[in-house]
Amino acid sequence: MNKFVGFTCSICGRDFGPDEAQYTCPYDSGNLSVILDYPHIRQKYHVEDLTSRLDPSLWRYLPLLPVRDPDGGGTPLKSAGWTPVFTPHRLAEGLGLRQLWIKDEGRNPTASFKDRASAVVVARAQEIRARVVVTASTGNAGAALAGMAAAIDQPAVIFAPKTAPPAKVAQLLIYGAQVLLVEGNYDQAFDLTIEAAKEFGWYCRNTGYNPFTAEGKKTAAFEIWETVLLPLGSIDRMPAVFVSVGDGNIISGIHKGFKDLYELGWLERMPRLFGIQSEKSAAVANAFFGKTETITPVSATTIADSISVDLPRDGLRAVRAATQTGGAYLTVPDSDIIKAIGDLGKAGIFAEPAGAAGYAGVAKALEQGLINPDDPVIVLNTGNGLKDIRSAMQAAGEARVIEPSLAAVKKALNL
């Protein structure tokens, strides 16, 4: 059965066959969403066919993915996804919430949410026999592509801003990708990547450009459904999912995942999606506040490099993720993001700034009455704190230096 039957444009609504488009709409450059053959999937599979699978990765949802099972068994390519969900009671009590879950995407093979998209894109690259896969990235997407590509010996080229954190650049290099640091920002690297892909015939993974990225990211919605929503059963309170937003592709991918489940009749009602942006990179939030789907570029300066984007490439669908689910957008100062890193750390969860931004938004949503203490709340930590040690040190402070004596220990610890 061919599950993947084509694309639909997010702007004009035109449908295209699988071979009639590749990246964006040929008429208006709108983002394309993958169309699955829902009637055939519904006929062939039931909920238990997925939940009974033993595969602890995103590939347990292969019946709902537009790619074939890729080569790469026993490699990191086949271990992306199925990240743990924690219930940190101390954090919940501190916020005044009855139910709180943190889904830790930092446990992915290259330590970020972006492994989901890269795993599916690399599988697609196999199918179309792409010679080289290329992407623009502030670090995480590039590391994810480099790692997934290395797992199956797929050549990869990464364009990253020169300002990307050194730890992320190190990942790109250690996986063996060809890395080019651009004297400019992410948006300039993005445009250069598209030019290079057209010139050299490479397959472009760019977020908010390649429709298969959202198909990888939607698997987080499937996991939230299976591990949180199904056990909750029928509830009066609609769950709220908090996601940090940069280019918009993660929240739009999660929205796509829930829409797939709803279309199949496996999800009773959609969770509310809350997009959290830094005040210093808030193009999508600004559109939401202005009640428009037109995204106006900003000059992004946030410390959260993974969500520092001037012009979000998937902004329209990111706005819809909130408006169509009864959710909202919130902006938080960078100081709140740094504080959230420390708060999550005290619960044993190490988040980079972008990963902590989602958690920073929960307190603000409570303050504004957008959620209630009885609402089930799920927060995504989208990346591991080791990605950005400089920000982690801002949150944690410096370690004390003492003389090697018990007297010094007693003095330092007030014993």
Question: How would you describe this protein?
Answer:
This protein is of the alpha/beta class. 40% of the residues lie in helices and 14% in strands. The strands form 3 sheets. It has a 6-stranded mixed sheet, sandwiched between helices. A 4-stranded parallel sheet has the order 8-7-6-9, sandwiched between helices.
What distance separates the N and C termini?
Answer: 69 Å
| Mean of all residue-level pLDDT scores | 95
- Assign an overall shape: globular
- Overall helicity: 40-55%
- Number of helical regions: 16
The chain-level structural class is alpha/beta
List the uncertain runs: none
- Number of E strands: 13
Quick summary of this structure?
The chain contains 16 helices and 13 strands. By secondary structure, it is α/β, with parallel strands linked by helices.
SSE diagram, text form:
Layout: E1 4-9, E2 15-16, E3 32-36, H1 38-44, H2 47-51, E4 85-86, H3 89-95, E5 100-104, H4 114-128, E6 133-136, H5 140-151, E7 156-161, H6 166-174, E8 178-182, H7 186-200, E9 203-204, H8 211-217, H9 219-232, E10 240-244, H10 249-264, E11 272-278, H11 283-289, H12 315-323, E12 328-332, H13 334-345, H14 353-367, E13 377-381, H15 389-396, H16 406-413
Parallel strand pairs: 5-13, 6-7, 6-9, 7-8, 10-11, 10-13, 11-12
Antiparallel strand pairs: 1-2, 1-3, 4-5
Give a quick set of tags describing it:
415 residues, alpha/beta, Rossmann fold, six-stranded mixed beta sheet, 16 helices, 13 strands
